[in-house]
Amino acid sequence: MEDQERFVPQPEDRFTFGLWTVGNRGRDPFGDAVRPTIAPTTIVRELSRLGAYGVTLHDNDLVPIDATPAERDRIVREFKAALDDHHLAVPMVTVNLFYDPVFKDGALTSAAPAVRRFAVDKAKRAMDLGHELGATIFVLWGGREGAEVDAAKDPRDALRWYRESLNELTDHIIRNGYPMRIALEPKPNEPRSDIYLPTVGSMLAFIQTLDHAERVGVNPEVAHAKMAGLNPVHEVAQAIDQQKLFHIDLNDQRIARFDQDLRFGSDDLKGTFYLVKLLEDSGYDGPRHFDAHPYRTEDIEGVWQFARGSMRSYLAYREKVRRFHQDGEIQAVLARIQKLHSEGPAIDGEASLNWWRERGYAYEELDQLVTELLLGMR
């Protein structure tokens, strides 16, 4: 029982979910919804009961795109009351620039100035909503920022429009005095044939061209990296190295599949362990945000099992990280490897070259020990 109590989520663990995650109704390209809509205020209540820290949202997850100003104010007022009643925070908001048909050829990279204007203004209103709810992170996923027909749009123009739009959005933050930063979310695949700025590395390079690069970072997602066969741990490490990990989306994914958004840690146990280890060892103090969906097979009760399982899994992996650092045999092997690397001879001739050529690094032994740790053998 004592062991199980370590895996009970608490607000200080900073676990968050999007309204669109637990609220996902199971619709996919080949089948309609299998669950009823869950009201945002109900989601707030249930996540609080499960021990979450906060909830996040796209603008239209909460306020319909066609809501009148009076309807918008009523919805927001009721939502804020639920947040207060259940002691939940809203650390991040984002904007939906991908669903409406107006964005079919891009939002911030649309060749049409009228569409770009509409997209930027919509994003500004989402920022205003986020500030009203207390959010300090604004995530921007460029889901429609891409192309199928390269003859139709010069990618240099698209990047210039992207840059101009982001500069205007950071100006909006600064002009209004919002304590808010922007986190760009890369995704190599879907829904366009080719996506602009598809990886963490390409986003980081682009950020350096912005007027206020210090206000813009990245929001890596596990599934997005794995869809393209990339290593999420390395993607996140690059963001940390550049001090640009402003937010993170946690889920799971099988390599080269469609965007599965599986429950965190449910598929790749070793990869998830190393990701949690990286976050914990680096001192990342932002939200642990679960951007995943319950299986389409589930009813409403299954939705809450999904949310509970996501948080418990993170806590279990975090416990494995603690045991990794305390395991005497693992640490002895690491020390032996590090000593070999640091105390081996300088390369100044054939004899020293051969010394390095003949050495084994004991990585098989280390990897097996980590595997045994994850399998509960240690």
Automatic annotation (TrEMBL):
The keyword 4Fe-4S does not apply. It comes from the Bacteria. InterPro entries: Xyl_isomerase-like_sf (IPR036237), Xyl_isomerase-like_TIM-brl (IPR013022), XylA_actinobac (IPR013453), Xylose_isomerase (IPR001998). Keywords: Carbohydrate metabolism, Cytoplasm, Isomerase, Metal-binding, Xylose metabolism. One of its GO terms (molecular function) is metal ion binding. GO terms for cellular component: cytoplasm. Its EC number is 5.3.1.5. It catalyses: alpha-D-xylose = alpha-D-xylulofuranose. Residues 45-291 form the Xylose isomerase-like TIM barrel domain. One of its GO terms (biological process) is D-xylose metabolic process. It is found in: Cytoplasm. Homotetramer. Belongs to the xylose isomerase family. This is Xylose isomerase. It comes from Sulfobacillus acidophilus (strain ATCC 700253 / DSM 10332 / NAL).
